[in-house]
Specification:
Blueprint lengths: L28 H22 L10 H7 L4 H17 L11 H11 L2 H14 L4 E7 L6 E7 L10 E7 L6 H4 L3 H8 L5 H7 L1
Antiparallel strand pairs: 1-2, 1-3
Helix pairs in contact: 1-3, 2-3, 4-5
Length: about 200
């Protein structure tokens, strides 16, 4: 499983396993510069400042996401967690369809992989404003659901296990696709690596 959680502050930026131009033309190097290099870095910097003292100073990133009240601490911790999974699940050479237990669970809970893709894309397109659309399980290996979450929302706060996610904040796609969220969702399918979701499941 890819490591998202970090044991305690100071928290560090996740290292990208590919060059910033590797996802083009689906996601450009310019988008990576801004989305990863500026947006995510700001969340990490803010989080480290917020947890420098106080009750969460010795907490892991996941503990903060699960337990922090709504507000700046939760927002910055969750955005760091969300973006880490988002970036680390992308690949220039992805496994384009799940297999094994995750594929069987998708067939069980959505009817087929194509039906899941259609429902997931519809949910992501229909989310009003800024946020995230997740594939989550109620437990490792458990029942699957599609979860729309506004702003910094994360299924961890509902006791669910996040498996994969698409970022539908406009900053995630505006450089490459302008206001065409549907085009960004279509591009997402070409670079999502299902090995990551399988390992988390």
């Amino acid at each position: 499983m890819i490591k998202i959680d970090q044991s305690r502050a100071p928290f560090a930026m996740p290292m990208l396993p590919w060059a910033k131009s590797a996802l083009a033309p689906h996601i450009s190097a310019e988008t990576i510069d801004y989305h990863y290099g500026k947006h995510l870095q700001t969340y990490v910097n803010n989080l480290n400042g917020l947890v420098a003292s106080g009750e969460f100073a010795s907490s892991s990133l996941e503990e903060i996401v699960r337990k922090a009240p709504q507000g700046p601490l939760f927002n910055n911790a969750a955005q760091m967690w969300n973006h880490t999974l988002y970036f680390l699940q992308l690949s220039p050479t992805p496994k384009t369809r799940p297999t094994g237990p995750l594929a069987a669970a998708i067939d069980r809970d959505f009817g087929s992989f194509d039906a899941f893709r259609e429902q997931f894309a519809k949910s992501a397109l229909g989310l009003f404003g800024s946020g995230w659309t997740w594939l989550a399980a109620d437990k490792p290996g458990g029942k699957l659901s599609i979860v729309n979450a506004l702003n910094a929302g994360n299924p961890l706060t509902e006791g669910k296990l996040p498996l994969m996610v698409i970022d539908v904040w406009e900053h995630a796609y505006y450089i490459d696709h302008r206001n065409a969220r549907a085009a960004s969702i279509e591009a997402f399918w070409k670079i999502i690596d299902w090995k990551v979701a399988e390992s988390r499941f």
